Amino acid sequence: MKFTQLPVATAILCALYPQISFAEQTTDVEANLEKIEIVGIRQNRISEGATGLALEIDETPQSISVISAEQLKNYSAFNINDALRLAPGINVEEWETNRTNYTSRGFEIKNTQIDGVGLPNDWGIVTGAMEAYGYEKIEVIRGANGLLTGVGNASGTLNYVRKRPKNENGGEIGVSVGSWDFKRLQADYSLLLTESGSWAARFVAAVEDKESYLDGLENNREFFSAVVDGQLTDNSTVTIGYSYQDADTDGNTWGGLVYNYTDGTQAKWDVSDTTTQEWTMWDTINTSAFVEYNYVFANAWQLQASYNFRGFEEQDKLFYASGSIDKDTNLGLSGWPGRYDSEVDADLFEVKAFGAFELFGKEHQASFGVSHAKSDDVMYQHPFDFAIHRLMDQPLHFHMI
Fold this sequence. Notes:
This protein has helices spanning 2-32, 38-43, 69-74, 80-84, 146-149, 384-392; strands spanning 63-68, 91-94, 99-104, 107-108, 111-114, 117-119, 125-127, 135-142, 156-162, 170-178, 182-192, 199-211, 218-231, 236-250, 281-296, 302-323, 333-359, 362-381. The protein is α+β, with helices and mostly antiparallel strands. The protein has one domain: TonB-dependent receptor, beta-barrel domain (Maltoporin, Chain A). The strands form three sheets. A nine-stranded antiparallel β-sheet has the order 10-11-12-13-14-15-16-17-18. A five-stranded mixed β-sheet has the order 1-8-9-5-6. It starts with a helix and ends in a 9-residue tail after the last helix.
């Protein structure tokens, strides 16, 4: 019995000791496991506008320029038109005071993204001055991008990267004044909502008012955005954001000054001359909202689902002058008034999975997903006789030299 009990006892002890040792090791490993924190995701954000993959710009097989928030601040580029003038290879073509389109390599840029999500813009024209202070940076991707995004043309793609919460409290307030009675106040603040930093918010606001070298032209713009992100579980995060812009213009133009006198010679205009009337206006409201959900798997792959809403409203009273003008009498032009109200709503859904894997001894990245966009555009054209009635009370004002 003793001879047989010893091996049994030894076997029991040998069986127990490894279990005790393994349990201690497991406890240590669990204590040292690195949890997926939202603060780490904030710190390591990489824009995926060019390819949909987490590639640095120098690793991306595309011609890309980045306009950073610091550049926007240094050059006082408060709106998108001024911001894109800083990008090489991009032409900012202003049709008149309130409409602009962007071109690259001889083609209109109709591909626009925000945080890498494509936005419908089949016309390519941007109405009103869009605030630039709400973006962390603007990526300008020149050339055909269809191979990388699924939809593209030969011009390029603009990717606007929103400002999002940081890992610390802090912000800034700025005041600007300039010629033509230019006044601007802006503020940007990031706030931790929890002691651990797992939830945070960022608020951006700007108010701008200015006149112009053009007679009668006045612009004012109000902008506000708020973004909140946080951690739902150890592996999942959610981000919610909203922005609002109200831009009003008085004394705007519709078209430009005519080129010729009736005798065929080139018309001469003073720099302040305009075809506007006292009753003209062009007001726009832009709103956007988004929800983004991220889940990080154990193998570092990520699942991202997002919904974006974009709304646009405009009310305008316009006057268009055409023809040629008599050098002596200042007569001869034809006027065309118009009043239009528009509403555009766009809904965008996207679900994608992306990550890295090893194959043939090398690390690769892949992205799979599906997106859906729907846009509704309604335009109201008011009766022509209403506009004519308004015109009968006022003569046409042109200043010539």
